[in-house]
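Database export, one record per block. Field names are fixed; values are copied verbatim from the stored entry.
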Amino acid sequence: MERKNELLLRVYLIFFAFVLFSGLIITKVVKTTLLDGDKWRSQGQKNIKWVEVAGERGNIYDAKGNLLATSLPYFDIKIDLLTSTDANFNTHIDGLSEKLAKHFGKTQSEWKATLTQERRKGKLGKSSSARYYPLMNKVTKDELDLLMTFPLFNLGKYKGGLLYERKTRRERPFRELAQRTIGEDRRNADKVGLERTYDKILSGGAEQRLMRRLPGDIWLPVYDPSVMIEERGSDIVTTLDMHIQDVAHNELEKVLAKNKAQKGVAIVMEVETGAIKALVNLRSSSVGGYQEEYNDGIGSLSEPGSTFKLMSAVALMDRGAVDLDTEVSMFGGKKQFYKDVMYDSEQHGISTGTFQEAFKISSNVGIAYATYQHYGKNIDGWKSFYSDLNKLGVMDESGIEIFGEPAPKFKNPSKRKKNDPLNWSGTTVPWMSHGYELEMTPLQVLNFYNAVANNGKMMKPYLVTEVMGESGEKTVFKPKVLRSQIAKPATILKAQDLLQAVAESGTARKLKVEGLTFAGKTGTTKLRYWENDGSNYNASFVGYFPAKQPKYSVIVVVYEPEGHDYYGAKVAGPVFKGIMQRLTSYQNVIAPESEKREVAFAKVNKGYKPDLKRVLEFIGMKYNDEGEGKWAQMSGKNGELELSSVEQDKKRLPDVRGKGLRDALFILEEAGVSVEVDGYGKVYRQTVVSPDGSKKKRVKIYLK
């Protein structure tokens, strides 16, 4: 009986002990969750968090398949130096150090000493960050795969200690070319360009990743992350042609630097479709040179100046107010309208001439007076001028995909307010007729000229032709017509005649190139024209080529060039001319058969064929490769360029005078000759050096 009571007592004691212990646990849980819950939750949030990690962003391509923007994954690598046992670490440290030295620089002994020392610090607790040693940052996927094969690391995360975090960076292979048009994918700032417009399409699928905070304020995934997130964004194909972009960029940059201009724009558009083939925006940079900092071609309004005369002329001709041969007064180049005096760029002394002649010499007075006579004398005429311009589409936005295009600014005679400086006045018609008291972007001006080149059909400018999903599905964007006919067909033909006259014998006559035809209009805009203080100017040229069956329309605006050359023909015109020349040779199909010229190719000295081909392809020159050897010479035959083979005669000493060092060395060494070199540049002299008992000939070449 006593034995039984003793056992029951022990059971009760154990039971009460468990009850007491459980009560303590429950009390602690209640205190932790209810009383101290907020404290511990906030503490936990400091050490663990969910982070959204974006998937791989889609690529952006140009019209020829060149990669314009792509996302490249990279990895930040750290090592948990205390997770491996002493046995594993000591066994593999030599092999690991050897591999790291072989592939990532430094010596084997340096790697071993660093890792051993950091492991010792971590064990002693002398450095909170020593345990998670930052091995290297921004390694590629291939480099990560290689690291995973190294001794120790190949034991896995918990035995080898290799930790990594996946990140991505956006790269543009063409660097600054079309930088503002392609845009930027920025985490802590607004996206710009196509990256912004097509952000949702380009963005890949995102995943939630649980991150933990390690000593040293290091954040790493709690679980092993996938090296690549599977769902990626769609790709987009643009209308841009990077060869044309490069041509326009170089031609514009050259002129900006020469004239020390503040900034410049050059846009190349395909006439038939409205596809933008090049869009260049360059601004003077504080660090020197010119950079793409803002998309002025799409986003900056300014007074267009004389390039707007075409819009006024089309409005007048379409209403029947003037014809090409209508006599207009030019008053010698000076005319007073109310209290303001208008001048032509030069005092030509012509009192009267035809409307076409006034347009051809860009007479401000002639165009303004003709417009004033029909529209400028009363409010009914003002309203008619406003209405006729609006019918042409010049007051509309172009509708380009990129964000930031402002609407053109035009005064409205029907919405006048008392004491409003933007009110329509008696001088508005004559000044608006030649491009003042209104504002448009370069693209909006170009779009009107493109419509004239396209026989009156106004196309919507666009930059993207396709969206391609990861699974292969495609969405195709076709050219869109904004206005099927901006004016009567007869009016458009007359407008084309006006622009051709400017190119043939007017203000743009000096831009002519033998065998090529174009049409266009020069523009010189005086800034703050109401101040007679030697204000700065903007120079512009807008036109298309060839004159018949045009392929491309182009606008060039050079803002505030320094010096005396600020006229459109002298500053912006050369950019147009350079683009026209280089694109004509690049396409080789731009001119109709009636306008094609027979190109005479000069026979040149032979050269290394890959170098010759690389140069020809860079300038866009088509050629036939007829030979098979390493060396070739260029020759013209029936207007076509041919590369024919050249074999070296090893029985005779080659003559390398006039050649560069690389070609000279290659030719002589192919002939079995050893070479001494003196100077740099091109070879101007060669001599045979005594062989000094050697059977191999030696030649010394002199360069300058």
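Remark 1: The chain has five domains: 2-35, 51-235, 248-587, 607-645, 661-703.
Remark 2: The first helix runs from residue 2 to 35.
End of record.
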